[in-house]
């Protein structure tokens, strides 16, 4: 059976340090303004590190008139930039803002889950960079943990595309604010 | 340089001192990764570190030496290194002839690059005899002195050991932003069941992650520590005899706490409810080992030294300092154990002047202006951005006016560089050799030259070699700097036999294989040393903390902590690191917003007698009512509002940045 590569993100451990975001740029040398991965504050104290979620039913794949997208056997969704004409249908269709349009090259690019690294047994650069261990890679076909959930506050609708990402939510904490 | 992977070390003024693997192809830095052989950073970097290729190859980097005339005009002209050296050396020699010494020549250098070879600046000035030099440490001195008073030496536990604690209490530090690699050790402890407590006036990213967050009025941490100690003492402690043995002043301390500390008063001053104090007392009393971290933020106000003494005393009286994996964190100064041959370079003897003139760097401009015989006429600025970071900007302007030549060495045309006559392009850490030792973790690492310097950039050491050579050409024997020595020679000499033993090195080459941790670290109280509890430290213990909070109504304490994507003003020019979220943002509380009728995202001004800053209001519902929060540097640097009062300048201390008081108003064109 093939694996289904997915991310698992622990919101309780993420400190919004953005190392994943910039490590992605370091690895892929994407230009300023092109963000294959980004960390965003979506609610008080809640930060999400999100890239392409390599969905089971990728909308980008469905809407692309040039058939520039393909899904590998391990689940990774790739784009062939040579086929891209810059129509940006995928940019509008993706609920996660994963496809990134570069106005200079007039092409779309996106997270490829560091497949060249994965192909030689390495983890994606974002996962490697995560100093707290909040971001990890799992095989969703075999991964089981009752605490992991498919939805989290601030994350877009999942029913249409079935994204390959799981979350651990924030835990409650005790606070004493000034009297 | 050959293709391959090189070892670099991040030299920033940061807890991480991260080991970097630099991937070089066709002479170009292609990417960086963390070095998995580093036991503290464990193969990771921070966002700034991962932006290294942009830091190096940046269109805004200085490429050549330049001269500007007149100063401040922006009329820059490219000059050769030889011309730059000739002009600078000519001025130094002329001042020497005019005044009969080099006291009119001085430098201002701080923490832009903490590599050992960057002491070349100090070495260069030493090499021509007595001159004017900065002393002290605006960032950490008050805390250092307080820790020294408590322990008799510098003391900071091993950061990796925090993973084995059962209680972690952080007072005024924000590792989730400023020391990201520490968080994994804290989480490791928590997964084992440890409790994690953060005490801070600001609900920081670290506070968000704490099991228990306790908000506290700024500058009142010492009171809280004493309050907790009182609860513990009143409940009765079973180890009183051993505490008496291990400390100096137990009976005084106990008497002081029992008679002078009132919990309701503590609660009122600190803003911390009694319930929270009881929880902390319960934790400190029962969870062992407990670690306590004195953050730098604690000592950025005039009560900081007392606060750290009180917190240290609490840690000591709960028996944590002799407990393995218990301990106390501040920062360490192990760099002082190195030979520091450049820093300690001995220059020629002057017939009448025995020593250099020392100026406290925390108050450099004001003190330098008082020097008359001779006045300071030439200033060299390196590893420093005075105009965005230092206090007393008005006196800086007076000093600049008095100076006949200002030279700034930097990678970028900073605000300070723009006020200089000459700028010299500095090499990045990828373009020079160096040796780096942390001040938080205990790892020693090499910094290799991975790529040739960007255009004509040079390291501080190469500049020192070039300038001293020129000085001697123009005036034989003016400098005794050993300019023939290569960087590698200096590195090898820093690795003395003693240092090699301490770090388990057999040769310099060992460092080319990876960073090395110090083998024996004194991280708990030795049996012979005694801890000095708080009242034993201060003769006037009754006066401790008794100063009233004199803050007037409708005034606000200005806090300006570090932000994630910059270190002070460094990394501002790196476009991968988006500073929009923090630049020119002024955070204020709900109550302040209501009081001044300020809406979110509108323009506001904060001001005091020193200046005025315009920014965009952001309402932070967790901010204490009498605090405003702003970030450092940016286009409108906040240090314009910072100026310590005269009486606080007398003794050596850190700069009390957080004692700055400002007022708020809506922005209005009529004030412009």
Would you mind describing this structure in some detail?
The complex is a heterodimer of chains A (179) and B (672). Chain A has 5 helices and 10 strands; from the N terminus they run βαββαββαββααβββ. With 179 residues, chain A is α+β, with helices and mostly antiparallel strands. Chain A has one domain (5-168): Alpha-Beta Plaits (2-Layer Sandwich). In chain A, strands 8-1-9 form a 3-stranded mixed beta sheet. A two-stranded antiparallel ribbon of chain A has the order 2-3. Chain A has a two-stranded antiparallel sheet with strand order 4-5. In chain A, strand 6 (100-102) and strand 7 (107-109) form a beta hairpin. In chain A, 42% of the residues are buried. Chain B has 672 residues and is of the alpha/beta class. The relative contact order of chain B is 0.17. Chain B has a 6-stranded mixed beta sheet, covered by helices on one side. In chain B, strands 22-26-23-25-24-27 form a 6-stranded mixed beta barrel. Chain B folds into 3 domains: 66-138 and 340-427 and 455-497, Rossmann fold; 142-330, Dimethylsulfoxide Reductase, domain 2 (3-Layer(aba) Sandwich), CATH 3.40.228; 556-671, Barwin-like endoglucanases (Beta Barrel), CATH 2.40.40. Classes of the chains: A alpha+beta (179), B alpha/beta (672). The A-B interface holds A 12-13, 15-19, 21-23, 25-27, 29, 32, 45, 125, 128-133, 173-179 and B 30-34, 41-48, 50-53, 176-177, 180-181, 183-184, 187, 203, 205-206, 208-217, 267, 271-273, 275-276, 564-565, 575-577, 622, 624-625.
Q: Main interface pair? A: A-B, 30 and 51 residues
Distance between the termini of chain B: 53 Å
Oligomer: heterodimer
Largest sheet: spatial strand order of chain B: 5-4-17-16-15-6
CATH topology term of the largest domain in chain B: Rossmann fold
- For the record, the count of structural domains of chain A works out to 1
Structural class of chain A: alpha+beta
């Amino acid at each position: 059976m093939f694996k289904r590569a997915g991310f698992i993100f622990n919101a309780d451990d993420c400190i919004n340090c953005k190392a994943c975001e910039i490590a992605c740029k370091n690895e892929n040398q994407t230009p300023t303004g092109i963000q294959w991965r980004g960390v965003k504050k979506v609610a008080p104290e809640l930060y999400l590190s999100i890239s392409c979620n390599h969905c089971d039913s990728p909308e980008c794949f469905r809407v692309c008139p040039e058939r520039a997208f393909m899904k590998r056997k391990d689940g990774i969704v790739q784009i062939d930039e040579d086929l891209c004409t810059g129509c940006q249908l995928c940019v509008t269709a993706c609920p996660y803002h994963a496809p990134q349009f570069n106005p200079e090259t007039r092409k779309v690019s996106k997270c490829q889950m560091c497949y060249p690294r994965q192909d030689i047994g390495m983890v994606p650069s974002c996962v490697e960079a995560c100093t707290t261990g909040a971001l990890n890679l799992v095989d969703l076909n075999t991964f089981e943990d009752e605490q992991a959930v498919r939805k989290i506050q601030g994350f877009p609708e999942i029913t249409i595309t079935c994204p390959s990402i799981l979350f651990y939510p924030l835990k409650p904490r005790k606070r004493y604010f000034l009297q | 340089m050959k293709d391959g992977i090189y070892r670099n070390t991040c030299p920033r003024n940061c807890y991480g001192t991260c080991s970097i693997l630099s991937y070089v192809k066709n002479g170009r830095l292609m990417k960086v990764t963390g070095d998995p052989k580093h036991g503290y950073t464990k193969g990771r970097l921070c966002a700034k570190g991962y932006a290294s290729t942009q830091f190096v190859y940046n269109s805004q980097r200085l490429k050549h030496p330049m001269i500007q005339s007149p100063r401040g005009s922006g009329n820059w002209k490219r000059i050769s290194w030889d011309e730059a050296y000739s002009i600078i050396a000519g001025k130094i020699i002329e001042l020497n002839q005019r005044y009969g010494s080099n006291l009119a020549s001085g430098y201002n250098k701080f923490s832009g690059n903490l590599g050992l070879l960057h002491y070349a600046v100090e070495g260069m000035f030493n090499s021509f005899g007595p001159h004017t030099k900065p002393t002290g440490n605006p960032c950490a001195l008050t805390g250092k002195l307080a820790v020294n008073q408590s322990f008799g030496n510098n003391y900071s536990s091993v950061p990796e050991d925090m993973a084995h604690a059962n209680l972690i209490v952080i007072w005024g530090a924000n590792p989730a932003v400023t020391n990201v690699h520490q968080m994994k050790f804290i989480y490791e402890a928590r997964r084992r069941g440890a409790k994690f407590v953060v005490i801070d006036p600001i609900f920081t990213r670290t506070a968000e992650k704490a099991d228990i967050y306790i908000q506290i009025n700024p500058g009142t941490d010492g009171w809280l520590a004493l309050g907790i100690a009182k609860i513990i003492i009143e409940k009765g402690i079973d180890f009183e005899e051993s505490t008496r043995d291990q400390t100096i002043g137990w009976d005084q301390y106990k008497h002081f706490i029992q008679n002078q500390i009132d919990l309701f008063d503590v609660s009122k001053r600190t803003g911390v409810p009694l319930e929270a104090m009881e929880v902390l007392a319960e934790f400190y009393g029962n969870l062992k080992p407990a670690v306590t971290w004195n953050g730098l933020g604690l000592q950025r106000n005039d009560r900081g030294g007392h606060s750290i003494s009180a917190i240290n005393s609490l840690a000591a009286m709960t028996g944590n300092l002799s407990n393995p994996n218990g301990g106390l964190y501040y920062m360490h100064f192990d760099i002082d154990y190195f030979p520091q041959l450049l820093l300690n370079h001995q220059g020629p003897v002057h017939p009448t002047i025995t020593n250099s003139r020392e100026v406290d760097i925390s108050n450099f401009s004001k003190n330098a202006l008082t020097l008359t015989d001779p006045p300071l006429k030439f200033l060299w600025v390196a590893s420093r951005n005075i105009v965005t970071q230092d206090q007393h900007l008005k006196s800086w302007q007076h000093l600049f006016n008095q100076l006949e030549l200002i030279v700034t060495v930097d990678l970028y045309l900073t605000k300070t560089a723009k006020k200089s006559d000459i700028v010299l392009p500095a090499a990045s850490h990828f373009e020079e050799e160096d040796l780096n030792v942390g001040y938080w973790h205990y790892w020693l690492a090499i910094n290799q030259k991975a790529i040739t310097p960007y255009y004509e950039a040079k390291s501080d050491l190469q500049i020192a070699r070039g300038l001293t050579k020129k000085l001697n050409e123009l005036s034989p024997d003016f400098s005794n700097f050993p300019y023939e020595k290569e960087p590698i020679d200096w590195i090898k000499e820093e690795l003395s036999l003693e240092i090699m033993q301490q770090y388990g090195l057999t040769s310099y080459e060992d460092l080319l294989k990876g960073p090395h941790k110090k083998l024996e670290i004194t991280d708990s109280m030795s049996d012979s040393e005694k801890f000095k509890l708080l009242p034993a430290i201060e003769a006037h213990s009754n006066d401790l903390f008794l100063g009233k909070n004199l803050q007037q109504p409708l005034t606000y304490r200005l806090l300006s902590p570090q932000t994630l994507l910059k270190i002070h003003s460094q990394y501002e020019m790196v476009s991968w690191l988006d500073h929009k979220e923090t630049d020119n943002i002024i955070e204020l509380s709900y109550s302040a917003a209501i009081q001044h009728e300020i809406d979110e995202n509108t323009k506001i001004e904060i001001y005091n007698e020193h200046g005025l800053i315009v920014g965009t209001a952001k309402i932070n519902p967790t901010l204490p009512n009498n605090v405003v929060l702003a970030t450092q540097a940016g286009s409108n640097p906040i240090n314009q509002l910072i100026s310590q009062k005269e009486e606080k300048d007398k003794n050596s201390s850190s700069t009390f940045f957080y004692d700055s008081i400002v007022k708020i108003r809506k922005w209005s064109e009529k004030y412009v």
